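In the design runs reported in the main text, the only information available to the sequence generator was the tokenized backbone. The following block is the verbatim input for one such run; it is reproduced so that readers can re-run the procedure and compare outputs position by position.
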């Protein structure tokens, strides 16, 4: 076998994406908050890019028609220049003021090493991030740190204190100690025994708050909370006798019949315990007040902030829905007039002019990419509004099937562009905030010829189950018949799949006993 090297020519066709095209696609895919972060990053990195604060009739443009100022000048409108009023005196006063205080101001900044103005702060604007941080509540400590703070005040010997601190390190955010006991023991410090860990765990479960932390499963967690309520009542006597009986019954149910409760086998529990269905229901009502994830009480999950990219408003005059983009600071981006003038100044060094020209090119491409993103998103949304008018008027049950390929063909763009335009974006409508992707799905046709999306079918299924007789809930076969009576024909397995997606239990678990 011979191996050698050589030069060959080959003709083929390939698709190559330039960095600019990749950047354009990335910006198209960004939701509002991510785009704000991208703009902030570009403002920090690109000196020729700046924000223009809106005042009155002033508009953010490409600034091609604006008077060019030197690099050290700031826009100032003291009079209405269009009305023929002179502004030269105002600028002269400003220049005199800058000369008189500029040096002292700069020296004060240099003396303070902690002062680091951001791009926006240096431009005299309020920093939105700093304002938000100033008005945001302090983030709570992680659950293990809070439990350790409590554990320090629990009276116990040093051996148990060390064992308790070791156990707290394995408690998850829900408040559970799910790590196997053998793994905890193997990672324990030298000399710590299983008996030390067991004694510390018992003390930890009784003394730390919220009640239920340190449990190894849901059953133990609920029992710990019920025991804490009973113990606190012995000290404070807050509960009446009926409430205490309910708690005692609830404890017995959790200890011996938790699986039957989960499967809604209440008659079986009544036969085995001698309790009435009424007593069991009252005890279960008490159990619903317990928290199966007690750790979240003090270390809550961070709520995801949704900033809608599009706002839909109803225009009663023209009887139509109008879409508007949440542009944020996007429309305020511009290329600095001072740097634009400097890049054309032949007295400047060649490296300086090349540096400015490169950054101006990047800034212009960013502004154009953002504008193209906004136009594409708005075109896609308008196409959605044309199809989904019934949804806006009547609700989710009137969602129509809308494949992305249909919108792509209508707008004359690639289906991948439509997918990126709706990715991770939300639309605020008169009916609430919805993910934009929700409006794109397949569907079916009802008996009356009306097209329905699968989301509309799910909404109808939810309505049927909400209105059913809870003493005789519909089985999946009965739900198929109910949907058929509304002109919707789907298979039983599809009903079961949609029911699971909606987190609706089967009929035997939805049944309510009197």
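Verbatim output:
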């Amino acid at each position: 076998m011979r191996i050698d090297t050589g030069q060959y020519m080959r003709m083929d066709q390939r698709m190559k994406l330039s960095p600019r095209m990749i950047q354009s696609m990335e910006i198209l895919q960004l939701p509002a908050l991510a785009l704000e972060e991208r703009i902030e990053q570009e403002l920090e990195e690109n000196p020729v890019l700046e924000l223009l604060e809106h005042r009155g009739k002033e508009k953010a443009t490409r600034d091609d028609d604006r008077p060019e100022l030197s690099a050290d000048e700031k826009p100032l409108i003291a009079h209405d220049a269009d009305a023929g009023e002179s502004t030269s005196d105002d600028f002269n006063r400003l220049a005199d003021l800058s000369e008189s205080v500029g040096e002292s101001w700069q020296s004060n900044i240099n003396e303070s090493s902690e002062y680091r103005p951001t791009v926006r702060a240096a431009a005299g604007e309020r920093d939105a991030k700093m304002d938000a941080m100033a008005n945001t509540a302090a983030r709570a400590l992680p659950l293990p740190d809070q439990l350790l703070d409590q554990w320090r005040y629990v009276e116990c010997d040093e051996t148990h204190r060390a064992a308790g601190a070791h156990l707290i390190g394995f408690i998850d955010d829900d408040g559970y100690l799910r790590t196997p006991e053998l793994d905890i023991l193997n990672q324990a410090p030298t000399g710590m025994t299983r008996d030390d860990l067991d004694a510390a765990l018992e003390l930890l479960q009784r003394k730390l708050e919220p009640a239920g932390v340190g449990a190894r499963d849901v059953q133990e967690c609920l029992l710990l909370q019920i025991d804490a309520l009973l113990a606190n009542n012995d000290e404070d006597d807050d509960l009446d006798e009926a409430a205490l009986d309910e708690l005692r019954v609830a404890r017995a149910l959790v200890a011996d019949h938790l699986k039957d409760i989960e499967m809604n086998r209440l008659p079986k529990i009544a036969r085995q315990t001698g309790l009435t269905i009424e007593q069991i229901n009252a005890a279960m009502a008490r159990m619903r007040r317990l928290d199966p994830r007690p750790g979240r009480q003090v270390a809550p999950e961070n709520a995801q902030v949704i900033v809608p990219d599009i706002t839909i408003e109803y225009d009663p005059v023209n009887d139509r829905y109008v879409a508007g983009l949440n542009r944020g600071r996007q429309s305020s981006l511009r290329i600095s007039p001072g740097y634009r003038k400097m890049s054309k100044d032949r007295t400047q060094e060649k490296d300086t002019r090349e540096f400015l020209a490169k950054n101006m090119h990047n800034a212009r491409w960013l502004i154009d990419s953002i504008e193209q993103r906004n136009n594409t998103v708005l075109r896609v949304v308008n196409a959605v509004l044309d199809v989904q008018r019934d949804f806006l008027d009547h609700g989710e049950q009137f969602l129509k099937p809308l494949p992305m390929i249909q919108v792509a063909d209508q707008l004359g763009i690639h289906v991948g562009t439509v997918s990126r335009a709706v990715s991770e974006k939300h639309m605020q409508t008169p009916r609430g905030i919805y993910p934009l992707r929700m409006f794109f799905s397949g569907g079916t046709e009802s008996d009356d010829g009306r097209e329905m999306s699968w989301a509309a079918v799910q909404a109808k299924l939810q309505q049927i189950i909400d209105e059913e007789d809870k003493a005789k809930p519909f089985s999946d076969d009965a739900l198929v018949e109910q949907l058929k009576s509304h002109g919707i024909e789907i298979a039983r397995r599809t009903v079961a799949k949609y029911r699971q997606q909606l987190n609706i239990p089967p009929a035997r678990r939805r049944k309510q006993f009197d």
